[in-house]
Amino acid sequence: MEFSELIRTGQAQAELLRGPEMPPLRGTLCVTGHHLLLSPGPQATPDLWLLLLRSVDSIEKRVAGDAGTITLRCKDLRVLQLDIEGVEATLDIARSIEALSSLESVITSFPFFYRPKGLRLGEAWHFHPPERYYKRIARETRAWRLSEANEDFSLCPSYPRAVIVPRAVDDDALARSARFRQGGRFPVLSYYHAPRGTVLLRSSQPLTGRQKLRCAEDEELLRAVLAEARPGARGFIVDTRSAQAAKQARMTGGGTEAKAAYPGWKRLHRPLERGRPLQESFVRLMEACGDPEQSMDRWLSRLDGCRWLSHVKEALSTACLAAQGMEWEGACILVHGAEGTDSTLLVTSLAQLILDPLSRTMAGFQELIEREWIQAGHPFQLRCAHSAFSHTRPKHEAPIFLLFLDCVWQLGRQFPLSLEFGEGMLLALFDHSYASPFGTFLCNSEKERCLCEVRTRTHSLWSGLNQPKEQRKLRNPLYVPNPLAIWPSVEPQSLRLWQGLFLRWTHPPEPSEVAWEKVWQIATDQKTEGSQPTDSASEPQP
Amino acid sequence: MASAPTSKYNSHSLENESIKRTSRDGVNRDIGEALPRLPGETRITDKEVIYICPFNGPIKGRVYITNYRLYLRSLETDSALILDVPLGVISRIEKMGGATSRGENSYGLDITCKDMRNLRFALKQEGHSRRDMFEILTRYAFPLAHSLPIFAFLNEEKFDVDGWMVYNPVEEYRRQVLSWIHPENKTVIMRCSQPLVGMSGKRNKDDEKYLDVIRETNRQINKLTIYDARPNVNAVANKATGGGYESDDAYHNAELFFLDIHNIHVMRESLKKVKDIVYPNVEESHWLSSLESTHWLEHIKLVLTGAIQVADRVSSGKSSVVVHCSDGWDRTAQLTSLAMLMLDSYYRSIEGFEILVQKEWISFGHKFASRIGHGDKNHADADRSPIFLQFVDCVWQMSKQFPTAFEFNERFLIIILDHLYSCRFGTFLYNCESAREKQKVTERTVSLWSLINSNKDKFKNPFYTKEINRVLYPVASMRHLELWVNYYIRWNPRIKQQQPNPVEQRYMELLALRDEYIKRLEELQLANSPKLSDPSTSPSSPSQMMPHVQTHF
């Protein structure tokens, strides 16, 4: 496909307004296949201003006299205004941006063309697959094995090629269990909690249906999990739907595990909102945050009405429930909702951050996201097609990954020393999950990424982020490894609006980057001066 | 596990542990002893009671009462609970239940405190067992009603530093005119009370003349700006009682603005509502909406907005400013002191802040005795109001928005508030300087700043970066204000973050290393500077010689 067919105009003169804090830019505006460029004239600063078209969420145009105005609302929640000379030019540019920003083809997207200096293709892609995690747990226990039954994605299109399953269950049994679970997502190991020898599993709902079907292999799989744990261990199935919703799912072929069929396992229902209601909550929150007319004495009740913080609270409490089941009751936990690709991953990944000190390191956190979100089949392309500003009716969009990042931010706020990465890392992940020059968040599953050859033809976000020059923005200068579990407080007054994200572009007091920079200075000055050696492998280059 | 409600999974299990921490409020004590005592503190009585803990249920303990504090130690093996409450924080003591009340723990005492909590003790019903506890508590919590001295006059604590020396009005005057003069454009902030205009529209030639002189000291702009802290309608209403505001025709060359800040009664009721939603249990459903209905943050916003206007007028508008409300010691003190904090980085240091409090609040006659009610039993007194607390809250909001601009930390603000009530120090006693002089407060009592300044490290913000001449404009939008949870909800063990100790320890490490770094840098500078290489000349004053070293952090 030729991008040139979609580009209506070469260039135009324009002025760009970037919000209250930044000076306006004047220059020549130009649309290319993937970018919007603004080149200031030779007299001005030589900096070229660049916007990835993919990150445009909605576009609004107005014309008056012989000039026009385009308002771009971006997926990273920025709002930009372009004042353009010429009515025709304005309309042409608007149409070009509209067409190019909504292209659906993955292989013509920018990551397939992005070739930054200093990075080599294929780097960092080998960092995090399940094989690596399996090696870690194989040192602790022999009860689990790495199965390649899904080598050709035939068992489950949304799982990676290799998954970790009980040693006692063979690949044929896995295939049968897969047929009994929605989308083939049979129970697999998500996290092995070595201190108590318990496990966290995830799956999708069983397809019991109206006839209350059963599957011997699926039952056997869960029985084997308990048998491998310590004697007498119990299991809890955390269903992220209400009991009512789980029951109703039977009418459409889904359902939940029957008590009698899974001895030793007890079901708990912790309904978490996802899909449409979550997306609407995000949209309402951004309306409230961006409303300049809003009379400020109603801010708190409006914030309350968005329910975003309630979603944060519910997600964190459910993760605590799963984590406490493992840590305090020594129980095995299986988490699933319906498809098992959204709330399920939210709960399992947060539970690991609470329990596992390794997942709170920079490398561990990247591995966690790769393993529990990307390879675990969270459909990023569908969920992050639009963020909060799109006028089109949401189809599959839902900010579930953003909700995860917000929960992590709350953890970081309550435990300021325990995460090796800082707010900058979470902001970067948010930006890149919605629009990125890197290939990491492309597609909906490993299968799709293989078909598109994402690994060999695009750069990994992790190699981009792990460059020395990025470290100061992303790392937490105050980090000290904390071997304990970090139990967050989920009382409403302990949870805050993540201002650094939701008010990022309207936020005027001391910009948090400035404060961050000062903290870095103090912390690193004394590190180079101080005599204690730190783990040099992960030491950033100042 | 399954039967427990979700909230059970939060941090309940940590409650017992955190209660130990909550009860320690910054008073030095020896935990090993049964009862910690200050020099000059005498033990009056002790008794076995049941403390009805709102978070953990009834706990059997022994309560000790001295002339300074109420101290409770748990007698149960599985609870290490300790309560340590200066009697000064007690606002009201009530008897609950009667000799014939039925039901467990229904007979005892109910104590309302000024610091956002209540205490409830159950006693045995036989033999009027609570009567002497009630009487002793009443006598020592409200000494003024019993012709007893306030504890500050009995306190024999000794500190290395004398906090009374922190503020010397003459020296401060040399540094500043009242209240503050801009170092470059020479505009000033002045304060006064409302003019006594009354219904008939009285005028006073001398007052008009005086304001005109103030205006003339500033050569850059012909106008003087007057900020009236009150809402416009209140100022008009005040005419009925003889007060009012400066009219245009009498004070030409002056512009008058109203800042819409409500009076002490509105603030008191607002804080009462905050207490209702946070103590003992936090209103969980619709937390934000209930918080909004207290209007507390809205009042904070208006005070901050007013102070920003004053500061901005002086700094950018280059106009001299007069600030007043009705009496000139409540809202006025809030506005001038906050504006000075925004304009002058000196007041953002520990010592500078102490001077600011001493000057703008204590010296200028904020009526601490009436607003707080030290040693006074009249809990419903309409003069009581949390004006100073509101000011400290505004300071905290600023320190949140500018994490590196203040030398002090949150603990510093909290200890000031704790001793605002405790009556252990003379700092906040009495309504005005003349009363303090009459009572010889500086000779007969210890200053709070003695306690703080002899242990400054505890109160330092490790991220403090000294910047001279930086004007701070906080954002006074509701989106950027939050409830000061660590103060208002600090008695609730559930909001405690689970690892305060490592955080603090890390901050202390950072501080120590920073100091060491500065010292080394200074040494290097000394070594590299040929003029100063002779050691006999160097010790004079390193900070004066190398101002750039100082400003580096």
Describe the structure.
The complex is a heterodimer of chains A (542) and B (553). Helix content of chain A is 36%, strand content 15%. Chain A has 542 residues and is α+β, with helices and mostly antiparallel strands. Chain A has 2 domains: 4-103, PH-domain like, CATH 2.30.29.30; 131-507, no CATH class. Chain A has a 7-stranded antiparallel sheet with strand order 4-3-2-1-7-6-5, covered by helices on one side. A 5-stranded mixed sheet of chain A has the order 10-11-14-12-13, with helices on both faces. In chain A, strands 8-9 form a two-stranded antiparallel sheet. In chain A, a hairpin with a 2-residue loop joins strand 5 and strand 6. The longest helix of chain A is centred in the middle third of the chain and has 22 residues, at 308-329. The model of chain A is unreliable at 527-542 (pLDDT under 50). Chain B has 553 residues and is an alpha+beta fold. Chain B contains 20 helices and 12 strands. In chain B, the strands form 2 sheets. A 7-stranded antiparallel sheet of chain B has the order 4-3-2-1-7-6-5, with helices on one face. In chain B, helix 8 crosses helix 12 (387-401). The longest helix of chain B is centred in the C-terminal third of the chain and has 29 residues, at 500-528. The two termini of chain B are 51 Å apart.
